[in-house]
Design a protein that fits this description.
This protein has 20 helices and 18 strands. It is an alpha+beta fold. The strands form four sheets. Strands 15-14-9-10-11-16-18-17 form an eight-stranded antiparallel beta sheet. A hairpin with a 2-residue loop joins strand 12 and strand 13.
């Protein structure tokens, strides 16, 4: 008998005895020759061992905590046994499909097939000892479907040896210890032997990957290239809850770079991903679009996008995808993961076209401004019609505007919240001339964020500077806002979510850290508001400190009950995150007061990022997200966890830290 004849007998056998028959004495290796083999839809199997049909219930794999129960132990053995049998069948198929592969490759493949037969027998014997019949639980064909279409030996070693067998370095090592903990030393020893063999199998695959790949390719790139959608590197490691086994991979010969990239790699194993994108210059894009032009960013705006885009990772679920212009290094991503931040799949922006071939759950940009709407327009029909986050046209320019403040103040009849919008240069000048005598004023572009572009003026401020600012803003935007410049004590924000049906949910209060000019520098978040505000302001906030519609409200009553009822009316056809900024201030010779609405932001916000970072990294602590300017750092990194990669930061470094309270 030749190896080819033996392999075909294994593949097509419809009995377990035929699948596990050892090679006959005197079997010869076929001379290398060109040839092909028609891949069957499924290998031959007895009826009891046929994989489950579509719609049949899938057997849930027990966790290590459930292994004290013998029924759960038998289910896990059944699951592993099916994987070993499929490996036998796939190795037989590879011998048939690649008759021109090097002799050493085929001999190694035959040797590995025999070891997989031994593993299958070991599982069968162990199941028999527990009274389990192979086939009594559902059997999956997933591994067969991923690997059987292989078209070359490098695809075989990439998909089986370096993906599914590599993942068994995690499973076998983990469950060997788990069975030992429940006193099942026999099964523990079985898995320990399989773990040892799997190290050699992964090493075999790595050896031949390096022989077959292009000389200039890294191991990671060659392997990744050889995986066909929907198979991805995430299948080469066990899912969360089972430790990533770095030591086993080192023993198999994988290098540190490969191991590190795999450890941080993330991609959904089933749920369609939401795509997250950071576009913080949304107001500038909206302003340019309103004037019939395209926003031309400068160096500062580009650095803002590139440096801080990693913050969007805080919003993403591990099954989601973050589209990044300049992804952090694998080393930095590992730092984030080791710190406890769950990472989504990360895709470089220049590879966005890949998404056209994938099923997506929806889109979650920082804001639905002209830039993000255009970015995702060609993917608009990809998600299902009932997605929670569909593509949409850009929000109306007014929904990015500080005009929203005036509207909601008028809608709620809020006292002590003066804000005036002007589209006429003459009217703005007249207002300034009349009101500057009573106190300093703050001039804001109607479209802008984080305090950028504001101008504070007093009676002795140079008129030429004020005039120049007014003309520039009204030349670039359709309006500007003028407010009293208040003696700030503390800035804060209220975070909300608006659902598709218009329901508004309050999430949290945050404290904004600003500089002397009102420019944003960071956000504090905490389990309770008393951890954010000084005691005197906390007391004030819980008193009737806000007047609206002729009634008085405490801070919690205003932000949690009254304001939500108006937000959906203020923002029709919008759903997503909203932040309402506010502040405490104290006039001279007076008590502290609240200005309840400074700005309404119908987009994501740094407060939302900080809220999600606390929830994931420090749920019981007061946390602070600080945006440092790199030019102000003295060479040493600030204390805390850098969210964006310090090695790639040009102008901004975002740092998360816990603060005492």
């Amino acid at each position: 008998m030749t190896v080819r004849e033996y392999a075909e007998s294994i593949l097509l056998a419809n009995t377990l005895e035929g699948k596990l028959a050892p090679p006959p004495a005197g079997m010869t290796l076929d001379p290398p020759h060109k040839g092909s083999y028609q891949t069957p839809d499924l290998p031959g199997r007895p009826e009891l061992l046929m994989p489950r049909r579509s719609g049949e219930t899938r057997t849930k794999i027990p966790s290590s905590e459930q292994l004290g129960d013998e029924d759960h132990r038998s289910v896990l053995l059944h699951f592993f046994c099916n994987h070993e049998l499929i490996a036998v069948e796939l190795m037989a198929l590879a011998l048939l499909k690649f008759p021109d592969a090097p002799d050493a490759f085929r001999r190694g493949l035959l040797h590995t097939l025999q070891e997989e037969q031994v593993h299958t027998r070991l599982y069968l014997d162990r199941m028999a000892a527990t009274g389990t019949v192979f086939g009594e639980h559902s059997l999956s064909r997933m591994i067969w479907d991923h690997i059987a279409p292989m078209t070359s030996p490098i695809e075989y070693v990439s998909r089986l040896s370096l993906t599914f067998e590599q993942s068994n370095l995690d499973y076998a090592n983990h469950y060997s210890k788990a069975f030992a903990r429940v006193g099942d030393e026999t099964t523990s020893g079985l898995l320990a032997q399989i773990y040892k063999d799997e190290i050699a199998h992964v090493g075999y695959g790595l050896k031949w990957l390096r022989r077959f790949k292009k000389q200039q390719e890294t191991d990671w790139d060659a392997w990744h290239r050889s995986l066909a959608h929907p198979l991805t590197p995430v299948r080469a490691k066990a899912p969360g809850g089972i430790p990533f086994n770095r030591e086993g991979r080192k023993k198999a010969g994988l290098d540190d770079s490969f191991i590190e990239q795999l450890q941080i790699y993330q991609r959904s194993r089933g749920r369609t991903p939401f795509v997250h994108f950071f576009n913080p210059n949304c107001e500038s894009h909206a302003a340019a679009s309103a004037m019939g032009t395209a926003f031309q960013g400068n160096k500062a705006s580009r650095h803002l996008e590139e440096d801080l885009e990693a913050l969007i990772l805080a919003n993403a679920h591990p099954d989601d995808l973050a589209l990044l212009r300049i992804p952090p290094s694998p080393h930095h991503l590992k730092t984030l993961k080791d710190a406890g931040l769950p990472l989504p799949e990360i895709l470089p922006l220049h590879e966005k076209d890949e998404l056209a071939t994938r099923k997506l759950g929806g889109f979650c940009p920082w804001a639905w401004s002209p830039d993000s709407s255009k970015l995702f327009e060609n993917l608009a029909d990809n998600p299902t019609s009932n997605t929670l986050h569909p593509w949409r046209e850009p929000l109306p320019t007014d929904q990015f505007s500080k005009k929203l403040t005036s509207r909601i103040v008028e809608q709620l009849d809020v006292s002590n919240n003066e804000s005036h919008t002007f589209s006429s240069l003459r009217e703005a000048q007249s207002f300034i001339e009349t009101n500057l005598v009573t106190g300093p004023l703050l001039l804001k572009p109607s479209l802008g964020c984080a305090g950028r572009g504001h101008l504070a003026i007093e009676r002795n401020s140079p008129q030429e500077r004020t005039q120049s600012w007014l003309e520039k803003v009204l030349n670039e935007q359709d309006a500007l806002v003028i407010e009293p410049l208040l003696p700030r004590l503390l800035d804060f924000s209220a975070l909300y979510d608006i659902s598709q049906n218009g329901n508004v949910r309050f999430l949290a209060f945050t404290r904004l850290i600003t500089d002397s000019r009102g420019h944003y520098r960071g956000t504090q978040v905490a389990p309770k508001i008393g951890n954010l505000f000084p005691s005197d302001l906390t007391i004030l906030f819980h008193q009737d400190c806000i007047s609206a519609g002729g009634k008085h409200y405490s801070g919690p009553a205003f932000y949690k009950r009254l304001l939500p009822r108006s937000l959906s009316t203020l923002l029709p056809h919008y759903h997503g995150p909203v932040a309402v900024d506010a502040l405490f201030y104290q006039p001279e010779n007076s008590l502290a007061q609240v200005r309840p609405i400074v700005e309404v932001n119908a987009r994501c916000s740094m407060g939302r990022i900080a809220h999600n970072l606390r929830r994931k990294l420090s749920p019981d602590s007061v946390g602070q997200l600080t945006i440092h300017r790199t030019k102000e750092l003295s060479g040493e990194l600030p204390t805390g966890l850098a969210i964006n990669d310090p090695g790639k930061a040009k102008s901004f470094l975002a740092v998360w830290s816990e603060v005492p309270f």
